[in-house]
């Protein structure tokens, strides 16, 4: 005796479910990688937009503008530890009464974001009124500032964002490499 469900036999239904299960088993890992890549690209683009905005405001306002780590979106947290930028960041004026111009929330877990200038981890970047990046502590040394965005997959999938000494913001198109094709490191 055949049992039918709206024109399908139970056997046909089980075969269809088995095929769907097999297809899903192959598609799920690809979907996970797609989501990770999309999240990382989106977070890197958010950083690039914030850096471009900070530089633009510095030139427009003819004043120094800072972008820094921030836990609450109200003031700079000073978190220069590796991965410290993952807690979020703000763009603000550096005058006597600082004004927050932009707030960016924390990155999705377990992503990390680190920044380094002149070989040292940093918690902020200041764009001068001419659009240049301010040299560290009056050192007069102008070098590229490096941001490294990492996720659970490690350095081979990390993203690189760099600020040249004259304030140009660039992002590497190749995962795991900086603009000079050097390998990235994750904290």
List key phrases describing it.
alpha+beta; minor pseudopilin epsh fold; five-stranded antiparallel beta sheet; 1 helix; 24% strand
Explain how this protein is built:
Helices cover 28% and strands 24% of the residues. The protein has 187 residues and is α+β, with helices and mostly antiparallel strands. It has one domain: minor pseudopilin epsh fold. Strands 7-6-9-10-11 form a 5-stranded antiparallel beta sheet, with helices on one face. The radius of gyration is 23 Å and the shape is elongated. The N and C termini lie far apart (64 Å).
Count of discrete structural domains: 1
Rg, rounded, reads 23 Å
Number of DSSP-assigned strands? 11
Biggest β-sheet description: 5 strands, antiparallel
The low-confidence runs, each spanning 5 or more residues with pLDDT under 50, are none
CATH architecture: 3-Layer(bab) Sandwich
**Helical proportion, percent range:** 25-40%
Mean pLDDT value: 87
Strand line-up of the largest beta sheet: 7-6-9-10-11
What is the CATH topology descriptor? minor pseudopilin epsh fold
CATH superfamily: minor pseudopilin epsh domain
Q: Can you count the helices?
A: 1
Portion in strands = 15-25%
- Overall outline: elongated
Distance between the termini: 64 Å
CATH class reads: Alpha Beta
User: How are helices and strands ordered from N to C?
Assistant: EEHEEEEEEEEE
* Content-based structural category: alpha+beta
């Amino acid at each position: 005796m055949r049992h039918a469900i709206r024109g399908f036999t139970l056997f046909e239904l089980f075969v269809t479910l088995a095929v769907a299960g097999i297809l899903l088993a192959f598609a799920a890992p690809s979907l996970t990688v797609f989501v990770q890549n999309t999240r990382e690209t989106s977070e890197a683009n958010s950083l690039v937009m914030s850096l471009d905005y900070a530089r633009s405001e510095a030139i427009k306002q003819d004043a120094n503008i800072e972008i820094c780590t921030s836990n609450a979106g109200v003031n700079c947290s000073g978190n220069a530890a590796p991965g410290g930028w993952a807690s979020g960041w703000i763009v603000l004026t550096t005058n006597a009464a600082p004004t927050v111009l932009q707030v960016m929330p924390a990155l999705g877990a377990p992503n990390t974001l680190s920044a380094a200038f002149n070989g040292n981890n940093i918690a902020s970047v200041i764009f001068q009124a001419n659009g240049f990046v301010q040299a560290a502590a009056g050192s007069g040394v102008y070098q590229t500032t490096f941001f490294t965005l990492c996720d659970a997959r490690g350095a081979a999938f990390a993203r690189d964002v760099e600020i040249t000494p004259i304030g140009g913001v660039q992002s590497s198109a190749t995962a795991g490499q900086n603009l000079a094709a050097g390998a990235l490191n994750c904290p």
